[in-house]
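Practice record 12: protein with D-glutamic acid.
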Amino acid sequence: MDSRAIGVFDSGLGGLTTVKKLIEYLPGEDIIYLGDTGRVPYGSRSKETIVKYAQQDAAFLAAFDIKAMVIACNTVCSAAYETVAAAYAMPIYEVVSAPAKTAVETTRSGRVGIIGTVATIRSGTYESEIKKIAPELKTYSVPCPLFVPLAENGRTDGSDIAALTIAEDYLKTLKDAQVDTLIMGCTHYPLLRDVIAKVMGPTVTLIDSGAETAKSVAKDIRTNKLPQNDGNAGSIRYFVTDSIEGFSALASEFLESKVSGQVKQVALE
Ligand code: DGL
């Protein structure tokens, strides 16, 4: 039994796709979420800047005496996972290896698509994770930088013309390559699931990186690798680095529960 919280961070709203699954799988755990909304997006920045931001995000969460940390951001995991993990003794979860493994297990055609931020795609992290397990698979990677601002602005509806037009353009090469499995390698992208699914069609399986990672955390708790909080119903506190209004409205809508009372604005620098 360990009643300390699990810390989760992302550049913005995207990590909530991971939080939603953590709540579903581990309703008894307390969660502390940090969204660096004042500096989102990370995905178009240099590796040096992403590493610096990641260190500040992790230090903020570690100050709460948490029992584990989930880096719910593929961009940070691709650029700074080793740096962050080396700085702390607690378990630090990344969001790349679990979805890569699921994609390998899911594909039947052997053609896997990967979408992510410019930094994630540039790093080649997903390709190397997949090649480690199944070198024979063919991977096709496309950066989709406009998906993050669409998600942060709530333009996620499956009939949103702007979102659909952008998605058609980004995903064309993956449709042409006839991938049957598509890794949404950015935690913001499941917010656009309806748009992405509409463009890719019903035969393509979409893999949610945050959800796959939440499954791994839940498995570690089930198998006592990570101590459980078997006290009361879990709670969540949210911290953001920009104003709380926009975040609270979109987060409440996405998590289907009102979050405004639990959100605080903080400065990381
Ligand atoms: N949600 C983040 C990811 O998983 C990054 C979005 C961004 O800040 O560009 O990559």
